[in-house]
Amino acid sequence: MSNLKPQKAHRFSFGLWCTANRGRDPFGEETRSRLDPVTNIKELGKRNVYAFNYHDDDLIPFGASLQQRNKIIKETRKVMKDYAIKCGMATTNLFYHRVFKDGAFTSHDPKVRAYAVQKVMRNMDLGAELGAKVYVFWGGREGTEVDASKTPEESLKRYRECMNYLCAYSRHNGYGFRFAIEPKPNEPRGDIFLATAGHVMAFIGTLDDPDMVGVNPEIEHSRMAGLNTYHDFAQCMEAGKLYHVDLGAQKPCRFDQDLRFGSEDIKETFFVVKLLEDNHWQGTRNFDEHPYRSEDDKGVWDFVEGSMRTYLILWEKVKRFNSDKKVQQILKSIKGKDPFLEGLLGRFTPENAAELKKRSFDPMALSRKRLPYEELDQRVQEILMGVA
Description:
There is one protein chain. The chain is of the alpha/beta class. The chain is built from 16 helices and nine strands. It has helices spanning 16-19, 37-46, 56-59, 66-82, 110-130, 152-173, 197-204, 219-224, 229-238, 266-278, 297-323, 325-334, 339-346, 350-358, 363-367, 373-384; strands at 12-15, 51-55, 86-91, 134-138, 143-144, 178-182, 191-192, 213-215, 285-287. The longest helix has 27 residues, at 297-323. It is globular, with a radius of gyration of 23 Å. The mean pLDDT is 97.
């Protein structure tokens, strides 16, 4: 197996909120000490992580003075230079403070919506200063438990107004951000607006500048909805809307577990890696996940190193799959080719339609073509288990 040591060229990134997670959950207090954000970035850089991502409040404590803010930014820029680590993505915490208890962009109160947009603009200024290229929007509080309290059509209108405003702000300032909306079906709200990648892509088409906005699908959020993450990522990519990705692991249809990448459903995860690497995807391979609550401070860095190592192992498996003679033989046998028919189907013209209607097909003969999917799937299993 090739060298599994992470390199900057692998473009791995982590959210500061992941490594700074203190192990708190709804049923228990913190199990780890606070991790200073500058130290956090330094430790990531020491492990050849390409970039860090942050919420505004991850880097600059909520309510910090201008003097505190400037000090942290100066220290951050020095560590970024010393450890050759970039800022890959910025986002805004619009979910933690009680002011957002009933939404930020979809709040009934215009003062709350205005405050939310102000908070985003201020962090966009900082993100641009730190060199972030992507800005993510996760609407964690944009939803309901009581459907009588908000109508989706009114809420989506407000959501759209805020997104249009912020797109215009980025253009006006020449920031060049690619906005990425992150879908999630539920938690912390009972139902969250823009629940899946499909919801987000439909919403993007209603914006003033749809080319500026894409999707940030997350493995855990797709699996929470019982969906196939590989298909979610692939549809976004095919549509030209895969602007950012969040990697992790999740048991289907559970609460948001944020497990270490590759620790659940290794086959589906393999195909996610295959999708990104076969298509030479230019974005970061971002991990949005949390160390187990049972871990101590050292375990946080075991978690970081393990996530990257698993990705590299799966990438090696992808290369093995792509070069495996048996796999390629099966794939060749099941992929039919007929340039003439493909030409007829490729584009409607009255002439193509008339020619197609004249063709004679034998459905029973077509149905007899062998599709050895059992053999193919077994070969994938053996590659993943290291016996092929």
